[in-house]
Structure formats: C-alpha cells, structure tokens
Amino acid sequence: MPITDLLARNARDFGDETALVEINLDLQDEHHVIWSEYELIENNPAGEYRRVMTWRVFEEKANRFARLLMQRGVKRGDKVAILMMNCLEWLPVYFGILKTGALAVPLNYRYSADEIRYCLNLAEVSALIFGPEFIGRMESIVKDLTQVRLMFFAGENRPSFAESYDRLTANCCSNDPQVELSEDDDAVIYFSSGTTGFPKAILHKHRMLTEAAVTEQKHHQQSREDIFLCIPPLYHTGAKMHWFGSLLAGSKAILLRGIRPEWILRTISEEKITIAWLLVPWAQDILDALDNGELKLADYAVSQWRLMHIGAQPVPPSLVHRWQKYFPGQQYDTNYGLSESGGPGCVHLGMENIRKVGAIGVPGHGWETKIVNDKGETVAQCDIGELAVRGPGLMVCYFNNPNATQEVLKDGWLLTGDMARMDEEGFIYLVDRKKDVIITGGENLYPVEIEDFLRRHPAVRDVAVIGLRDERLGEVAAAVVSVKEGFTLQKEEIEEFAMGLPRYKRPRRYIWGDVPRNPTGKIEKPALRKKYGVEHLVGEQTEGVFCCSERPTHTF
Fold first, then answer.
1. By the 8 A CB rule, do 500 and 506 touch?
2. How many Cβ atoms from other residues are within 10 Å of residue 40's Cβ?
3. Higher pLDDT, 99 or 501
4. Would the pLDDT of 166 be above 80?
5. Which domains are assigned to the chain?
6. Which range among 101-115, 185-199, 461-475 has the greatest average pLDDT?
7. How far apart are CA 318 and CA 430, in angstroms?
8. Which terminal residue of the chain, N or C, has fewer Cβ atoms less than 10 Å from its own Cβ?
9. What is the pLDDT of residue 44?
10. CA separation for the pair 100, 94 (Å, rounded)
11. CA distances (Å), 44 to each of 48, 88, 268, 273, 330, in order?
12. How remote is the C-alpha of 293 from its chain's centroid?
C-alpha cells in the first residue's frame, strides 16, 4: 500500500479532526503577509500565531497540487523538488507530488545557492516549489537551471521568475487524481547530510515510506490519542518518518518553528504533547535552562508527555541520566538510522530497555544487522567492526552514482560507515564513523568514546574530537570544547578530568570554541577539521588551542 493511501483513509475516516498544527512563536508584525491563514492564539499576546489543518483539508491540498503538476505536464518518474522551511504547506506539497507518480526531492534549507544548483542538477529535477526565505538564493542561480521548467512560489511577494502556488492550486480540483501507484514505484530522492563530503542523491521506492510508518508505529505505539511534536526539518528523513507513525495512527502532530527551550516546553504544555522527538543539542539546552533556573518545570504541564526519543547522532548516556532526574516517569528511546535506510528505525534501543542506555539498541522492526570487518566477514562478539543493515527500507541506489552505490550495497546489505560493537545480549554500541576514526601511533581512537567521557564534566556543554596531523604519530586527538554559559574551564581542569580515560585516549590538544552541528544534530567534523587542521608544535599555544606536552609511551 503506498503511503498516500493512508492520507486518503484519514481524510475519509477522520476528516474534521485536526491533522497538523503549525506554531510560530517568533512571527513579527512585518511578516504577517507571508501567509494568509494564520489565526491569533486566543488569550495570548499579539504576534504569536497558530495555524490548523484538518485531515480533509490536508488531502484536498495534496490533491490540488497534484492536479496542478499534472496540468503542467508532470508525469510518473519526473522529479519535483521542495525548498521550504517547516510549515503547514510542506506535507501537502510532498503528498501532492507523490500522488502524481513523480518523485519528491526535498532540499536542505541550509544549502547555499551553489549546493541547490548542484542537487537540482544531480537529481534531474524538472519542477521546484520554494518559499520566501529562498528568493535571494534562487535569484542568483535561476538562469543556470535550464532543466527546471516549472517553478512555484509558496507565499506573498512572488518573484517574477516563479508562479504562485496559492493562486494556482486554489483553482484546481480537490478530488484525488487517481494515479495508480505501486510500492515498487520510485517515490523520493533524499540527499545525504554531507557531513563526509558533498551530498549524494538517495533513491527510494514507495515501499520504504510505508514500511517506515509501520516500523515507527511498532516502536513507539502511537495511538489516536497521541499528539506528536515535530521540530526537526521536514526535508530530512528523520522528522518525516517519525511523523509517519502519527499518519498511520491518524493522530495529531504539531509543527513548531523554533528550538528555544521555553518554546518547546510551552508547546508541550499548551498543546498537550505526548511524544516529542528531540535532537541532542535541544535536549541539552532544556536541561541547562532547568539547571540554571531559567526555566521551572512547575510552570508547565508535562504529565501527559509519555515519550521523549532522540536520534540522528550518538546520544551521551550522561544526558539521558540527567533527563531522567527531571522526567523520572517518562519513557525514552534512542533511534538509529540513515537516509539510505529510510530514516530512523533500522536499529533502536526500545522503550523497555532503558537499562541499556549508551547502546543504540537492537535491530528494528523488520530489520537485520551484522558487524563486519573490511573483508565483509562477521566479527567476533564484542569486537569492533562496521555496522551493516538489511531490511525493507533500504535504498535502491545513489542516483546517478553507480560507483558510490557499489561501495555501500553488498549482497543486499548496506554498509553504514559506522563502527560498532555488539555485547553479549545483542545490543549494538556505536563507536564512531569509520571516516572519523583517529589513528595515532598505530592505535585506533574512536572519538565518540572520548566525547561521551568529556561531556560528563559539569562545565562542558558540547565537545567534538577530531584528528590533527602530527609528524611523529600521524594523528593526535584534539578536543573542541564548548563551555556552558556562566561556567569557566581551564586547560588544567579538563586535562585533570581526562585522566579518567586510558592514557592513549586522552586528547593531546584542546580547542575552546563552538561545536557546529547540522540541522539534524550531527557534528560537522569536516568543518572543524578544515578550521583547525593546521599543524601546531607540541607544547605550543595559539588562539585558544592548547597542546599537551605529554607523549604516549608506546608506538606501533
């Protein structure tokens, strides 16, 4: 069954019930013209807005956009890109594309103009819909996009090179276009996060979307009474596939535009949220705000909030333990997945396995896992190797990149690029990205292990460990440390704290600075390596880079 059938079912069975709510707590008066459908939240100060969409209107809007695309010649197999911030229009646009038999191609809203052009060309996109935030970027490249024959603009103050999505769809029929879809049809092209290089285009079939909905609902048991809070960007597989559990259950979801801790807790309280998917930085910000008294949990209604789950990057166990102190009765889950495996769910901890915090978990519903060496052989239990997964949400290929496809798809298994180990109970622990492993004096260092340890220091807000070149050892570990607001941290303090690590795992250099993360929470280590990847003499101190004089006593 294609995922579009679930939307049609919800419109039929729950048509007048709320499907989606968009909340923007930072909308200023001068932005009122962007959307015409905002309604003032009753009893709240002016400037705070809330928009609501029922399942019937959701289906009708998807049908109208599908009809518009088909009127303009979009057909099965064509590619239609979405370049929009999270908003109430995003998901109807996505489903409208799918209903035509065309492929939806979501784009990262952080992309530069050059990256947008690159991705549109790579995916062979022929139509694009974009929002007001991207006018400048589109203006700079529109003359180069000769293959994009249709451009639609969602919002007011339409640029001359695009047509109005709102005006045109208003005149289209709201009935289903009746295009027959199969789970074996190509459905979407997502782009890799680009943390290890330029994005690759990931092709998936309709089957992946349906299986993702089933997997999510199996893992988190969404019911019609649940209300899901969605904050991460909808262009990414993670946010959308977690929402698919709500789609399958026919339950309400809230799209919150903003990540301030007070906004998150306020929305959870006022909208009666029961399930929230957070990224590590947002959970950490909430905890920090509660710790320093900036926020008081007693000011919010959170007793109905039954589940908080985290994914997209390794989760420090210390964060989960801190979280449990504030939310002792709340369920927790860790989700592991890749865009190549249809987003989250190929591995998950499981709400019943809180005792195993630190592990990414066990194979998800319908998935298989194994840990292999460079020859593709399964390693011994507890040994470190590369995690491989196999299941119903596996990508078809990297679109237009057969060489990259062959590197990661082996006999139906996806090589994830993540180094991991499995314990005696079958729980998998993520060690690090294969490309992030630091080889120092012949010894493998896995940055995630070091990062998790250093984050336990009370003054450390975030940390990223990267390898820097060293003439003697090849590489040495350098820790980029972000200090919590209101705290100070001296080099001697962090060095003393790191004495709790085995000698060879202790960072040789410390850098006080920001830890950049992409919109899905992953540390942007290529950016850090580019910024700090200069050779410093041992014992030298330059611009916040502190180097330890201690040398390891062993080499290989």
1. no
2. 12
3. 99
4. yes
5. 3-258 (3.40.50.12780), 307-434 (2.30.38.10), 437-547 (3.30.300.30)
6. 101-115
7. 15
8. C
9. 42
10. 11
11. 7, 21, 16, 19, 29
12. 29
Is 460:484 a contact under the CB 8 Å cutoff?
yes
> For residues 301 and 305, what is the distance between their CA atoms, to the nearest angstrom?
9
Task: State the Cα–Cα distance between residues 93 and 152, nearest whole angstrom.
Answer: 11
Report CA-CA distances (Å) from 221 to 4, 11, 20, 228, 351: 21, 21, 19, 12, 10
Give the burial class of 513: count Cβ atoms within 10 A of its Cβ; 0-12 exposed, 13-18 middle, 19 or more buried.
Answer: middle
pLDDT at 471: 63
User: What's the DSSP call for residue 328?
Assistant: T
Token pair, residue 38, equals: 């905002």
157 Rama sector, left if φ>0, alpha if ψ -120 to 50, beta otherwise: left
Range list of H helices, 197-257: 206-220, 237-249
Q: Which residue in 306, 310, 287 sits closest to 297, CA to CA? A: 287
Q: pLDDT: is 15 or 439 the higher one?
A: 15
The token pair that represents 350 in the structure block = 């499981």
pLDDT at residue number 443: 64
Secondary structure (DSSP) of 32-88: GGG-S--EEPTTS-TT-EEEEEEHHHHHHHHHHHHHHHHHTT--TT-EEEEE--S-T
For residue 434, count CB atoms less than 10 angstroms from its CB and return exposed for 0-12, middle for 13-18, buried for 19 or more: middle
* Largest Cα span, the chain: 75
pLDDT grade for 544, boundaries at 50, 70 and 90: very low
User: What six digits make up the tokens of 536?
Assistant: 């410093």
**pLDDT recorded at residue 187:** 97
